[in-house]
Each structure stands twice: as structure tokens, then as C-alpha cells.
Amino acid sequence: MTIDVTCRCGKVLKVDPRHAGKKGRCKSCGVTLQIPALAAAAVPDAPPLIEPLVVDDEAEALNDAFTGLSTDEDGVVNDDSVRAPLPPLPPPPPIVPVATAPPKPAATGVPVEPWYYRFLNGLAMFIFAVGVGIGTCGLILGFVGLFTAPPDSDLARSGGSVFLTVWSGTLLLSSLLTSAPIMLAVDAARNLRAIRYQR
């Protein structure tokens, strides 16, 4: 517990109660102040001691070194013993609940496209890849059979090479004609969607 002493410069000084009734100096302006007695400072009375407390000079010096309060020969409290109040603490940072996530920013631009756009595009690519792969192999085998088979062989007589070549070419063309419109339709739908959401 400390005694509050107000200087005429407006500074409020806090003094240890054991210096009650003595004089001290203000740290700000250097004016000598009278520290009020315990009764005038409204300090509650200490409980009565069973045995009287004897304080020797060494204990007094140790206490002064610990608290930073000391007096000179006249009983005046030194400058370093009068303590000014501490500056106020800064306000604590606001508490953000852990359970609540920060709000997400508003979405701008085009929202996520529907799943079937990717599915139709993938299906068209699959049809195109299978048709081109099988058709190209058939065309190569058909042309090899046409140009390398002897004229009197069964393959040449039956027209198998010609059939394989025509069938492979038809497969290649039909895969292209099936997959291209699907890919074009999906691309047109994506572009129309982008135009609609840019307004």
C-alpha cells in the first residue's frame, strides 16, 4: 500500500507508508513536499504486534536497496525514492473466436462451371481418340494389304484390303464428325456463360 501525494505541478506521487510524516522532493519540478501522516493519509491501521519488531541499520539499508526508497540525514525522501505512477497499459488486442472463420470475399467473375461441361468434353475427346487410333491403324493395314498382296492371293480376290481401308476411313471420319460438334457445343456454352456473368 502506498500514500498518494499530489504536487502543485499536478504530478501524483506514490510514497511508501514508512515515510509518512517526512518530507520528499517531486521528481518533476524538485519542490519539497510534506508527506502526510498515516492517519491523514487514510492508511488502515496495522494489526498489533505480539512482540515489538526491532529493525537494525543493516535490515533498513537492505529494505531501502530493495524498494528504492531512501532518506537523507534530515529525514527527507530522496528523488529516486518518490515513484511516479506507471503509464497506462495499451488496450488488449480484440479477441477473435477460433470457431468462426473470417468471412470469405465476395466472388467476382464467372462462377464454377457445371460438371457436365467437363464430362461432355472428356467424352468427345475419348470418342475422337479411339476413332482416330483404330481408323489410322486400319488405314495403314488396308493400304499395306492393297500394295503388298500378290494379285492372285485370297486377300486380293476377296477385296479384304479394300474393305478394311474403306471401313477404317469411315471410322476415322465418323469419330471426327461425332466429337467435333460436342466439343464446339461445350465451348459455345462456356463462352455464352462467360458473357452472361460479365454484365
Throw out a few tags for this protein.
two-stranded antiparallel sheet; about 45% helix; 3-stranded mixed sheet; mainly alpha
Describe the protein in words.
The protein is mainly alpha-helical and 199 residues long. The chain has 2 domains: 3-81, no CATH class; 115-197. 44% of the residues lie in helices and 8% in strands. The chain is built from 4 helices and 5 strands. The strands form 2 sheets. It has a 3-stranded mixed beta sheet, with no helix packed on it. It has a two-stranded antiparallel sheet with strand order 1-2. β1 (3-6) and β2 form a beta hairpin. The two termini are 71 Å apart.
* Average pLDDT over all residues: 74
Rg on CA atoms, Å: 50 Å
Separation, N- and C-terminal Cα atoms: 71 Å
Structural class: mainly alpha
What fraction of residues sit in β-strands?
A: 5-15%
- Percent helix, as a range, is 40-55%
How many extended strands?
A: 5
What count of structural domains? 2
Number of helices: 4
H/E topology pattern: EEEEHEHHH
Basic shape: rod-shaped
* Spans where pLDDT lies below 50 across 5 or more residues: 48-55
Q: Strand arrangement, largest sheet?
A: 4-3-5
Largest sheet: 3 strands, mixed
Concise synopsis of the structure shown:
This protein has 2 domains: 3-81, no CATH class; 115-197.
Strands, helices and their partners?
Elements: E1 3-6, E2 12-15, E3 23-25, E4 32-34, H1 57-67, E5 76-77, H2 115-148, H3 154-158, H4 160-197
Parallel strand pairs: 3-5
Antiparallel strand pairs: 1-2, 3-4
Helix pairs in contact: 2-4
